[in-house]
Write a structure and sequence with these properties.
Elements: H1 17-40, H2 53-57, E1 61-64, E2 68-75, E3 79-84, H3 98-101, E4 105-110, E5 119-120, H4 128-141, E6 147-152, H5 154-165, E7 170-176, H6 197-204, H7 207-215, H8 226-236, H9 239-249, H10 254-259, E8 267-273, H11 282-290, E9 294-299, H12 306-309, H13 311-323, H14 335-341
Parallel strand pairs: 3-4, 3-6, 6-7, 7-8, 8-9
Antiparallel strand pairs: 1-2, 2-4, 2-5
Helix pairs in contact: 1-6, 4-5, 6-9, 11-14
Keywords: Hydrolase, Membrane, Transmembrane, Transmembrane helix
Pfam families: Abhydrolase_1
Protein name: Alpha/beta fold hydrolase
Length: 342
């Protein structure tokens, strides 16, 4: 009998699992390389379309120190007061405060490292000791052995740390919605603390992203005008300022300031926005309990940028406190009453 040969149907070849894995890994490698390139090599263009109107209205001064070339203004006459702005802010945030305090004081408004038009030298650390030393170098350069200090947000933490390390150099201290307690950091900065993700976030940030974040610091949204956004975004969009912001986020260790609160000797005023979305007003009450010679004022209907959000209330408060006149704090809430309302 003749044999019959049955041909089996030809099966279409399928890509091997090994080939699929290689392809997937290749795509992932390319994507990772692109991410790292953006995070650590690529630099976004700065916003060069805006010309600061504020700079045209003030008399900018500069002083060289071993740490930085500081940009500052000096206004008025009388006992000295130094104003320190918060993170991703600059002296512009005190535009409504300076003329009020300058009636009785010589007001120095200085851009700290990472801020405004100050430029740092070498590899600046941006941690609390470095920021405190930078403040000290500025005070030395302008001839201030002792002064009153006003600090907002991170700027408040830097002034607090300086007052802890150098109590004899601080006459009076004002903290405006300032971190410095061993508490969770503001959730708005958490993203920037993550490796790679933080670099990507700060580099891909545009003006609209910056404005969205800035608005969370105000309760009165009408205060966030186009000028308010542009005056800060203009310099914040520069690559070195973006990088400095990330370094700041990762370098602020407030367990250090918390542990040394007892070293502050200066009479201290704590001012806090009741509607602060960054740091709760309950922090103010704790400061009031733990700092010597501290009084607390909670500002109803004001956000994190309390001095910008409600200058009509905050500026007279600062002016009265910083004069040191008898009864200067008679209308300021006590720490106990602030705690009850927080």
């Amino acid at each position: 009998m003749a044999s019959t040969h049955v041909r089996e149907p030809v099966r279409k070849a399928r890509p091997s699992r090994r080939r699929w894995v290689r392809w997937t890994l290749g795509v992932m490698a390319v994507a990772l390389a692109a991410v790292l390139l953006i995070a650590y090599v690529w630099q976004p263009s700065a916003d060069g379309s805006y010309r600061s109107q504020y700079l045209s209205r003030i008399h900018s001064m500069y002083v060289e120190t071993p740490v930085a070339r500081f940009h500052y203004t000096k206004t008025g006459s009388g006992s000295p007061v130094v104003l320190i702005a918060g993170g991703a802010q600059w002296q512009y945030s005190y535009r409504d405060t300076i003329p009020v305090l300058a009636r009785e004081h010589t007001v120095y408004a200085v851009d700290m490292p990472s801020q405004g038009y100050t430029t740092v030298k070498d590899d600046f650390a941006y941690d609390l000791p470095a920021m405190s030393d930078a403040l000290g170098s500025f005070l030395d350069a302008v001839g201030l052995r002792t002064t009153s200090l006003v600090g907002h947000s991170w700027g408040g933490a830097w002034t607090l740390y300086f007052a802890e390390r150098h109590p004899s150099r601080v006459d009076r201290l004002v903290l405006l919605d300032a971190p410095g307690l061993a508490k969770e950091p503001a959730s708005q900065t958490e993203l920037f603390a993550l490796p790679v993700v933080g670099e990507l976030a700060v580099k891909l940030m545009g003006r609209s992203d910056f404005e969205k974040s800035l608005r969370t610091a105000f309760a009165d949204q009408d205060r966030v005008t186009g000028e308010v956004v542009d005056e800060t975004w203009h310099w914040m969009s520069r690559s070195e300022k973006r990088a400095a912001f990330v370094k700041l986020v990762r370098s602020q260790d407030f367990t250090v300031t918390d542990a040394a609160l007892g070293r502050v000797r200066a009479e201290t005023l704590i001012v806090w926005g009741e509607a602060d979305e960054w740091l709760p007003a309950s922090y103010a009450a704790e400061y009031g309990k733990r700092l010597q010679n501290a009084t607390v004022k909670i500002i109803p209907g004001a956000g994190h940028n309390v001095h910008e959000d409600n200058p009509e209330t905050v500026n007279p408060l600062l002016r009265t406190f910083l004069t040191g006149a008898p009864g200067a704090t008679s209308f300021i809430q006590s720490p106990a009453s602030a705690s009850a309302g927080a």
